[in-house]
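Sequence in, structure out. Go.
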Amino acid sequence: MIVALAGGVGGARLANGLAGVLQPGELLVAVNVGDDFEHLGLTICPDIDTVTYTLAGLNDRERGWGVKDESWAFMDTLRKLGGPDWFALGDRDLAKHVLRTDRLRRGDTLTAITQDIARACGIVQTIVPVSDDPVRSIVETDEGALPFQDYFVRRRCEPVFRAIRYEGAEAARPAPALLAALEDPALEAIVICPSNPVLSIGPLLAVPGVAEALRRRRAPCVAVSPFIGGEAVKGPAAKIMRELGIVPGAAALAKPYAGIVDAILCDYDDPGAGTMIDGIRLIAADTLMRDDIGQRRLARVALALAATLRKPA
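Output:
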């Protein structure tokens, strides 16, 4: 059993790499829900959908989100009618949002819905939201508080990032499947994917019980840095770090992951490579995932590193 924590495109790519090198049923991917929101009466779960589409081989590789070979008749009509068109919903993608919203209204859990959709997409690994309870990321900026999707999509991360809060996290409960996996004696490793530590992993760790379970675990935990050459491969992680007065790089992960990870995989040119910060080893590797082969290669490197950190039974 391997547990991966993921959010965003980078997280989905490494999760896909792990799925590609492990046997069916050996991987559980716990996904960020902080960027979920309600739009046009629908519950949208972007990170869950990105992970699902990527593991199913249905993701649009050029855009980095959504479904490949998408059509946009719904959005075209919505725009002509004067509706809000700042958040794009493709025709094929829309079906999942409608189904999810209907089932949530009928009382089904987000975990059950996510797993049913994953099975319908042919996915043989387990995908779960970190919590079935709503957690919503609110970004504090120089223009005031913005719901995550307003900051990320509507404003394209242009406002200056000041802080973030995870609304609802204090009352949320971890997904039972995640806690069970973290407490499973068969657990061999935990991998924190190269996701934005503030926007994607932060909401996961903010759910009471998750960070505590990670600190109690006996299996090794390896994080993969999302930074290469002081920049994020995808997304605003580097911009956010700079606006918080933090130098983007693997060393910036040591504080938020303190007590949780044993080692951080970082790119060869990361200035922290080969050092140790607060008991966390920074190990150099080629962390750029150019394609499926690169995703599986990095997955093997992360698992091999975890194996060297595993304590004898």
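Check: The chain has a mean pLDDT of 95. The chain has eleven helices and 15 strands.
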